[in-house]
Amino acid sequence: MFAVFSTLIVFTVSLVVIRIATVGLTMTGVSKDLAQFQAVSAFTGAGFTTKESEDIVNHPLRRRITMHLMLLGHVGIVVAIPSVVLSFLNTGGSEDWTKQLTVRVSVLVGGLLLVLVIASSRYVEQIMWSINTLALRRFGGIHVHDYTRLLRVAQDYVVSELQVRGGDWLAGHTLEKLRLSSEGVLVLGIEKPNGEYLAAPRGHTRLEANDCLILYGQQESLLDLDERSAGMEGNVKHMLAVTRQMDVTEEEMKSESGKRG
């Protein structure tokens, strides 16, 4: 029976490793779905020669994460296969081996199903995501932020994801009240925790914790917005950001006038 439990432990650890790697790849600027796909591919050794894979390989930090995944994946397979074989073959010489085999198969299958159900839970995923993000920031040497850089449009303007957390300046307010456009930030879409997607949201739309925003703006502005907490300090930062954007707009108008002249 020890071999059965060791198999379950290896399987559980494998899922945790894949989840941690998914968070790590996401924090380097890969979309969540692509990060999960690439993490599973690297861990299982299933290579995919796609453009997305090239983006992983050409990035030093992503390449390091993928390399560790491959190594851990091979170790997991080496440990898991003997454990599975032993769980079915080692019956201790008992005459009632059929009964023991049935019990072991039942425990193994039941344990695997339980682990998969827990791993598929949205609540568990949110908890693990928060823990993994905190751990990678503190111990993993990944000094980036929660929003995912998806596309460099021009110069310092990007289209990015930003995860709203409880206590953020954004949480609990409507877009009309936040006036993000006055900071030069446009909200292109909002993904709710239940999977609902709001495209081109209007001013009456309220932002809540765990909402995922698709934003367009300067990278510096999005970084400031991601770190902005609720309260007076956040309001002051908002006013400073509005002032900066007014200066940027004025400079752009002067530049445009100079070109026309």
Q: Mind explaining what this structure looks like?
A:
The longest helix is centred in the first third of the chain and has 30 residues, at 60-89. A five-stranded antiparallel β-sheet has the order 1-2-5-3-4. The relative contact order is 0.10. It has helices spanning 2-27, 32-44, 51-57, 60-89, 97-120, 122-139, 175-178, 219-227, 232-260; strands spanning 149-154, 157-163, 186-191, 197-199, 212-218. Residues 143-150 have low confidence and may be disordered. By secondary structure, it is of the alpha+beta class. Helix content is 61%, strand content 11%. The chain has two domains: 2-139; 149-260, Alpha-Beta Plaits, CATH 3.30.70.1450. The protein is built from nine helices and five strands.
What's the quick description here?
This protein is of the alpha+beta class and 261 residues long. It contains nine helices and five strands.
Key structural traits:
alpha+beta, 5 strands, Alpha-Beta Plaits, elongated, 9 helices, five-stranded antiparallel β-sheet, 2 domains, 61% helix, 261 residues, single chain
